Amino acid sequence: MSAFGTEVRPGYEIVANWLRDTPAEILTQRQHEAELLFRRIGITFNVYGDAEGEERLIPFDIVPRVIARPEWEKLAEGLRQRVTALNMFLKDVYSKGEVVKAGIIPEDLVYKNPCYRPEMQGISLPHDIWVSIAGIDLVRVDPDTFYVLEDNARTPSGVSYMLENREVMLRLFPELCSHHRIAPVENYADELLATLKSMAPRTASADPNVCLLTPGPFNSAYYEHSFLADKLGTELVEGSDLYVRENVVYMRTTEGPKRVDVIYRRIDDDFIDPLTFRPDSILGVPGLISAYRAGNVTLANAVGTGVADDKAVYSYMPEIIRFYTGKDAILNNVPTWRCREPDALKHVLDNLPDLVVKEVDGSGGYGMLVGPKADKAKIEAFRAKLKAHPEKFIAQPTLALSTCPTFVDEGIAPRHVDLRPYVLNGADGVRIVPGGLTRVALQEGSLVVNSSQGGGTKDTWVVDVASPKVAQQHQQQQSAPLV
After folding, report:
1. Are the CB atoms for 355 and 399 separated by under 8 Å?
2. Could you say which of 83, 379, 437, 470 has the lowest number of CB atoms within 10 Å?
3. Which residues of 186-223 are buried (b: 16+ CB within 10 A; e: fewer)?
4. What is the gyration radius of the CA atoms in the chain, in angstroms?
5. Eight-class DSSP state of 281
6. DSSP of 215-227, one letter per residue?
7. How far is 32 from 183, CA to CA, in rounded Å?
8. Can you give the pLDDT at residue 47?
């Protein structure tokens, strides 16, 4: 939907009517109420490196992002294909390495990757599942084309916002929501728990015991950890709550030790077991990897999945998908120059003001250059970085990202968005809750949607598209604004 034009995308008809008929002061009031709800709920995050150490709200925009059901079905098909290929890639590079032997991806890009964990080489995981929770970031560039911006295969965050955004919309705008057939997201926790239990070791009981392992309350995503543990009905534990005896993991409880079968871990690889990785870690569980290697506990996601998050590895995903599935990628990558390659580096250096440059292991919108928005000094600083360590960077064109109508101080205005659907991959198949987390760049013209960089979120509606006649009848039935 264009905020200023006359064309309305399928599915947006009722939202367009609502925005046209609802007074600005009512929208302002509802936006304020939404902020109060989020503060009452306590849904905050911390920004690492923030001198004030202040907990922040992620801004929430009350105008939903709408995706028509036929569009979503095509996206879901591509997401299933991609996560399946990611899982096959990880299983392969930690065993036979056929994708490297076939020359699909350079050997050093995998085995010298900082996120590659040699300790996982040869481990047989329960049900061969490496990536059980994936967050695949998508951007739209025209009415028919979505690109995958990046793959998050370690500990993708943000799903609590997806769930709370829907809850707030239902509370503030029940009439508007009732005028659409919106696919539910409320069942995400049930789907996640079913996925986790399906991956339990074969030695587990018929009703596997699942817990969520958090670094603790000082982690920026701690709210989400506690939120998800509550929704799952599982224990939220820190490393000190668990111990390993004879390669079996136990949880300390008031009723005595209780065996743990599946750990949904939100702790990075480096800190998860001081006996295997960083010996100074006080966040992990000593001996956990031994129990893991023995097949007595499942970790979701598996240790070592970060090699698939690498943005240089990302650039090979079309070839990786074709290698493992025998089919072309349904969802395309953003065209990418690998700065480790001399010809690509020359092109990037010659065109820095027009490109987006990212660190291969970067995240959160940090360590990147948006050429068209950068001043000369920043461009020259990045030029020096590229010349010194070209292997640490990739570059991409500045895409004409799609915009969604967004309620800002000036009223309704277009703002750039991306989409992070959450894909669950268990022993009993792939599950995808329709929609995901839409992130919005609230600054006019900005392409950076990350919350740590001032971005906000929207509720994402996957809707059944009514025929033009039915949509017209809906609009005629609205004799008053939906407020």
Report:
1. no
2. 470
3. eebbebbbebbbbbbbeebeeebbbbbbbbeeebbbbb
4. 23
5. -
6. --TTSTTHHHHHH
7. 26
8. 52
